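User: structure tokens for this one?
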Amino acid sequence: MKILALHTLAFLHVHRRALLVFYLFFTGLVLAAIAPLFSSALTALRPITGHAAISTGGLVQFVVSPGGLLWISATATLTALLVILQQAGMTWIAASGGGREYRIAIATLWALARRFKQLLTLTLLQLSGHALIAVPFLLAIVVSYQWLISPHDIYYLKLERPPEVWWFLGISGVAALGIAVCNGWLYLRWVLSVPLLLLERRGARDALKQSSRYIHGQRLPVMGAIIAGLVGLALIPIVVTWLFQAVGGEIITSLPERMGVLMPVTLGLIALYILFTLTAAFAGMAAYSMLIYSVYRQATGHHRHSTAQTLPRRASPLAWSAELLIIILAATQAWFVLQSFDHRDDVSITAHRGSAFKAPENTVSAIRQAIEDGADYVEVDIRMTADGVPVLWHDTDMRRVFGLNARISDITLEEARARDAGSWFGPAFSDERIATLEQVIETTRGQAHLYLDLKPAPETPDLTREVVHMLQRMDAVENTVIAAAEWRVLAEARQLEPSLKTSLLAQFIVGPLWEQHFDILGLRQNRVTPATVARTHRAGNELHVWTVNTPQAMSRFIDMGVDNIITDRPAVLAQLLQRRQALTDAELLVIKLRNWLR
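Assistant:
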């Protein structure tokens, strides 16, 4: 293993500049050409894939639909192909002799172009093999989900955690371990296929077979080195981010309260972070590629390509241009990042089901508490009783709140109001009863805006119509947001009342936001990134993030530029906004820098 490490470092040292030039060329080509082409292809696939923003309700349908499968396959293929092409390019450079860096990089790109068909075939074969191995385990997860989880409301399962939850987690854990072990072993067996295909001009199938034979004869330390290389690749961004979060914050807080000092230092820190990130990403990928090439040479005894011809000790000025280009790119990007920092906190507060941390969700008490806590909007879930009354109710059944294994649409309002809707949260709320939409409109009038999440069921197809008509009758249309996880609900609401604002509660975005059926895109917090925010704003939509309950996450999304934060703790968010208004420029700059680094 020691010899393997020394060979890897030697190849990395000898070819470092050629590798760097190729990395820049390849990355630039991907950003300038391949990414826009892929985006255009997604747009062209609109008739097949359907909507660009996939709603919560349409997630399963999308995944199992022909369009969804096509999108998943295309995304996986492109991602894997780019990784293989980059590794192949670095492998080609490692096998070459000395020479001018730019000539080597261009020659490498040409070699990849000539072998592109074979590399694409290799990518497709690898993906197919991994998919075939993973399918039985994934089916086990799907079947156990349908059998154990789907019959129950998700929030009942989260709170009560019946045995079905633990059975499902156990089955899923075993299946995930099976995927990790089986697919991991397959990856190791095929890890030499790229150099075999590229350097020995083998076909894709032959390269995979030969790789399996060579790897079978290797010792455990070699496998350990490859696994360690993969772990190192995953840890690089985490370590770099942690380091700059710790050091950058200390540096800025120790500086004098003068923007003439703070801004240049912050600019320098951002530039250094970008520079280190780019360098670390390049070094990690290059080192891993050199490791695979070293394993290939050791396994095959392949010594045809000599590395004796190296660059002269005193490289020409042109050889330093790659390093200079990276520094210029980092400084330019840092300037744009710094310019994007907005000292204003322009974000609205939406209380999720009222102040759900202080009172039973979707009740009058929770709504009044949300108003007291400073919420701009009160989000509530709307379903319909058997007698056609819109009421505040989230779950698909009544088990969590009423202890009944039935739907709210199975009973009348009178029957529902006869039951205790608050004791499940705490004894102090034992007198709480189910709230109607009419009560909510009167409670919030003039104090907060409504954010109505409509949840129609097959047995209540008139829910949207009844809600819109009630808003119209009670003069409550203005500033009210109609939210839903289904496109058809928003389209119906917009048709009934064009002035209503609509919000699509989506899981993720798969293409350009071409739809005009909504004003607001609501995303789960783990789906929101600065790029998503910018993309949504470019499409002319607001972006609302849900459900955010920690001050750290709230602060991060404020600096990300979201328009609305949906939270169970509106008082915490209101206090955070007040504290941020009292911060000095230096303190606010530290927070924004840390949030940007996360």
